[in-house]
Amino acid sequence: MAASLVTLEGADGIFTLTLRRPEALNALSTELCVAVLEALARVEGDPDARVLILTGEGRAFSAGADLKEREGASAEAIWAHNRRIFQIPVELERLAVPVIAAVNGFALGGGCEVALGCDLRWAASTAELGCPEVSRGILPGAGGTQRLPRLIGSSRAMALILSGRRIAAQEAYRIGLVDAVAAPEDLLRAAGEAARAIAVNAPLAVRAAKRAIRYGLGRTLEAGLDLEGQLQRMLYESADCQEGIVAFRERRAPRWTGR
């Protein structure tokens, strides 16, 4: 059932969550959304988790909402479907560990909005991204009108959202929508290297840094600095902080315990 629509695999603290509706370009049906949210809860509940990579099977990361599910549906049913999609980027942002989107193909509409909820975005050179909702009589209602301007600036976000235009991976990289571009056959390897570069660091510190950055994005500088200080004070009391100091003195790799 829903579980077969995704796979969640993990090794050495790095998890890969794959959307598996390739025949539908990984369109976000209600059932697929439920499966993704359940998988995210599993990662959140794993104390050994360090990083999550999110990708899609086949030609698409995700082509967005499953419009076949909405055909003939009431406004209330469509709204309920939208809220399922909306929840995915919210939970990606809330997830304690960093999330890297490996955008393997089309990331359109809700699919692009899911990518926006990730902390980092790696894209295949063949990928296309965009928010074409206005061409379907709606707006990017899974957070796109808010996250996209925060990421690339209001003017560029206006141009993309109001035109509904798709852009290629290299243009997405140029405007800051994605952080790196790789050949399609190298995408997961490149995302994996980025994940490992994160995973080798102190897990409490990585989680705290993500929390501080995410918290500060929607608040004043003073509020962000206050939380940053609280988290730093907490980290000073951790065993990993002492391990980092000792490892530096002994010129060896630290052995993190997450405590």
How much is the radius of gyration in Å?
19 Å
Helix-and-strand structural type? alpha/beta
Number of helices: 11
What gross morphology would you assign? globular
The CATH H-level superfamily of the largest domain is 2-enoyl-CoA Hydratase, Chain A, domain 1
Number of strands: 10
**Average pLDDT taken over every residue:** 96
Low-pLDDT regions? none
Q: Supply the CATH architecture of the largest domain.
A: Alpha-Beta Complex
Which strand order does the major sheet show?
Answer: 1-2-3-5-7-10
Q: What can be said about the biggest beta sheet?
A: 6 strands, mixed
Ends apart, CA distance between termini: 38 Å
Structure, explained:
This protein is α/β, with parallel strands linked by helices and 259 residues long. It folds into 2 domains: 2-199, Alpha-Beta Complex (2-enoyl-CoA Hydratase, Chain A, domain 1); 203-250, Lyase 2-enoyl-coa Hydratase, Chain  A, domain 2, CATH 1.10.12. It is 49% helix and 17% strand. The chain contains 11 helices and 10 strands. It has a 6-stranded mixed β-sheet with strand order 1-2-3-5-7-10, with helices on both faces. The protein has a 4-stranded mixed β-sheet with strand order 4-6-8-9. Strand 2 (14-19), helix 1 and strand 3 (51-56) form a beta-alpha-beta unit. The relative contact order is 0.11. The mean pLDDT is 96. Keywords: Lyase. One of its GO terms (biological process) is fatty acid beta-oxidation.
SSE layout and pairing:
Blueprint: E1 6-11, E2 14-19, H1 30-44, E3 51-56, E4 60-62, H2 67-70, H3 75-94, E5 99-103, E6 106-108, H4 110-116, E7 120-124, E8 128-130, H5 144-152, H6 154-163, E9 166-168, H7 169-174, E10 180-182, H8 187-199, H9 203-217, H10 221-236, H11 239-250
Parallel strand pairs: 2-3, 3-5, 4-6, 5-7, 6-8, 7-10
Antiparallel strand pairs: 1-2, 8-9
Helix pairs in contact: 1-3, 3-4, 4-5, 5-6, 9-10
GO biological process, one term: fatty acid beta-oxidation
InterPro entries: ClpP/crotonase-like_dom_sf, Enoyl-CoA_hyd/isom_CS, Enoyl-CoA_hydra/iso, Enoyl-CoA_hydra_C
GO molecular function: hydro-lyase activity
